[in-house]
Design brief:
141 residues, mainly beta, three-stranded antiparallel sheet, elongated
């Protein structure tokens, strides 16, 4: 199966369509993403349409293949033409985009969660944009 994202004018993903690979394969058995795009335009109208890979997450192909556009996208995600990747919307103004993994990085790494002897979390961390630091939130048990 092949997957294609339909984008709005701001390169945000409106929806993701799944196609049978036959829809993008010529008589000689060669696959062409453009054939898939042409098929989707015929069915649903103009795009833009951009192929996404169900098996790609954080810049890696989970089956060992070649990653495509850093991530399998979701509705509301963004396609960066400059980096040819899909990524989620920016969570905070201070975070920067990792253009290989297609994920946002905070200016300060998140601290480790503390665990009790049974392996349950004792706390979690929440980003504070005003102070540019992680706030520790204790979990009551």
């Amino acid at each position: 199966m092949a997957h294609f994202a339909r984008l709005d004018d701001g390169n945000r993903v409106i929806r993701v369509h799944c196609l049978d690979n036959k829809s993008m394969t010529d008589a000689e058995g060669n696959e062409s993403p453009q054939m898939g795009i042409d098929y989707l335009i015929e069915l649903h109208g103009e795009g833009p349409w951009v192929q996404t890979s169900y098996n790609t997450r954080r810049g890696e192909h989970k089956l060992g293949g070649t990653p495509l556009r850093a991530n399998y996208c979701s509705r509301g995600w963004v396609y960066s033409e400059e980096h040819d990747i899909f990524h989620p919307p920016q969570p905070y103004p201070s975070w920067t985009l990792d253009t290989v993994k297609g994920e946002w990085k905070p200016p300060v790494p998140r601290p480790e969660v503390e665990m009790d002897e049974d392996g349950r979390p004792l706390n979690f961390w929440m980003w504070n944009e005003d102070s540019q630091q992680w706030d520790k939130i204790n979990v009551t048990q």
